[in-house]
Input
Amino acid sequence: MSEASSNPLLSLIKERGLIDDLQMDEVVQEQTRTGKPVSQILVDFQILDLDTQLQIIADHLGTEVVTLRDGELPEEIIKSIPAEYARMYQCVPVEVFGSAVRVAFADPFNLDLINDLGFVVGKEVQVVVADPAQVEKAIGRYYGEQTESFTEILKELGADVDLAKEAEEAAATDDATEMAGLADAVPIVKFVNLVLYQAVQDRASDIHFEPFEDEFKIRYRVDGALYEMTPPPKHLALPVISRLKVMANLNIA
Output
């Protein structure tokens, strides 16, 4: 039951008496066996249709359900979230007003991801709920194929002289304030999120961030085998590790 209670959607429908303990266990077992999303399993098992699921999520979050397949979104709305962020955070903007943007996420429960997006785009992000399959299709329709590779982003970071200087100064002084500033730097947030996104896409079970004296390695495990990502510049080790500590609510010092 612990796995079931850790899934926010299952917890919500359980609170409303829409699923019993036996059904919850069956859903969790099927999800573990097949890797299918819980929402799809609920539909397949005829426990709860998708529209009802989306409305329950929207009610819980205090927002509304939107349909992405109707009509075309204006270009100015699409441009409010750059393509690389839309892909990385699996989201689509649906409305912009002032300094705020309403965004449909494939996973509207992930508050850390939502807050990170607001930070990197410099806007207040207001969540709306949509069919995750529609979100995925909308990303492909409005943003096309991915154009910026992991290697290209690494090159940009390696060429960032100011970031390298700040990282060296923070390492030399061991100053927690400087480390915190580096952890929240947009290039570092973008890089760490991309590493995590790539690992999820490749179905990695764990990620290894390994700072050595002369190099910084990042490896992730897939089906028991470790694969090494393109080595990032060594000076990124401190800000990247600091970013991970911030995300995990650990002491950054």
Q: What stands out?
A: Residues 186-201 form the longest helix (16 residues). The chain has a mean pLDDT of 86.
